[in-house]
Amino acid sequence: MLLSFENVSLHYSPGHKVLDDVSFTLEDAGFYFLTGPSGAGKSTLLRLIYQSEQPSKGKIRLFGEWLSGKSRARQADLRRRMGIVFQDFRLIPHLTAWENAALPLRLGDSSEAYIQRHSRELLEWVGLGKRLDAYPTELSGGEQQRVAIARAVVARPRLLLADEPTGNVDDHTALKLFHLFDELNKLGTAVILATHQNHLVESFCKPALHLQGGRLVSFTPKAA
Amino acid sequence: MPLPRHLFAPAFRARHLGRSFAFIVGIMVFIATFATAAESALLSLGYNWGQTMESRITVEIPAAGDESTMPQAQRVEQATTLLHAMPGIGTVKPLSDSDVKRLLKPWFDDPSLFKALPLPTLLDVSRQPGATVTAAQIRDNLKNAVPDARVDDHGAWTRDAWRLMHGLTLLGGVTIALAGVTLLITVGMTCGTVAASEHETISLLHVLGADDHDIARHFQAQTERLAVRAAAVAFALALAITGGLMYATRHIADYSALSLLHWVSLAAVLCLIPLCAVGLSTAATRFSVLRLLKSFP
Fold it and tell me: Do B194 and B289 share a domain, yes or no?
């Protein structure tokens, strides 16, 4: 079992629930879409998984461990087993594409030679082999997106979380990115991909969790 | 592997935070080095000088107004004999006429006056090591043979000088302690400002799996580089100025009176100052950053 939510709710103020009594279980190495309109709670649910937020109620279990009451060191250890692609990329502006992509490896105990080789290879894989030393401001939105993806997968995570990774690109590029995530999934990485582009989701035969107004309204184990 | 060296560089560059940090470390090292060197030199010179002075007593045999009573030479000889016989007295040495004239020279401009005036004879008396013989005991011993002899114990006023020196030492210690406290406060404030302006980067590092110690270690390395450079420059400058001052005051302070052991221990203490400043600033960085990071999710 990869992840389970048990009656998870999150509210910032008493009358305003961002997530309301959400429960589901996801299996290891699966590919899951997280769908719903803007403001449905998709990003919040992802933030709960990478522990940037704590649930107001309910319990979350990740990689077989309950997340509540974890020490900060253990929290960091769990986060190292995840890769995250943010909607706004969150690249560090004064680091080059290569330095950004290599960051997660520098938090582990990889050798400098491995970091150099592996992160460069990965940037080449996402088609940025010639832009290694470019700063984020010198890259287009699509290129920044690919650096963010390279950074998310460079440390071979067990789980990849992607928050609206196709929000800033056209449908054709979005499909290519979805195929990229699919390839990663085939290599053994579980993927949870949040998107509001339902028409793209439908073209993939993958399970989807549909959120609306903070509630999980449907969980199709296998899309039609 | 460490995080990229320049990860937080923009925050340290912003508003010259890095430069201000280095400047404060430099000033603290300069003050502490200068205060320690000056205090140590002063204290050691005072100690050497005090030791010599405290073991000495001056006995003044005034020139006899009426030589027919007893010639001056005989009075001096009698006093010398009595003093030699006293337990605890080491040497008794009359000062030569030329020495007496040299001592009186600031008050008598005209050399012919020395011939006209009856000059007293001064006896330089030393106590044996550990002896407790006092000026009053000497005065008592001489009162029958040379009733007008005056006894001057240098220990009385060297004790006042000692009190002053100890006060200065305390002041030096307080200055060094204040320098350390200022350093700690500055480091805390700098780290707080840098961490606030790098909030986004720190949050990202957390999400990528960095634990608080990874981030604190990176901050520590950054401040260590700044502190090492600043401490080295300030230390060299303080030593140069102290050396210059010692050279300029060599006529009034006999630094050759200080032993080799003293110079070696002073050098060791001085070398510890920049090391302590770097250690203190990096430890304070780690502590401040770890404390700040606890507020991050």
Answer: yes
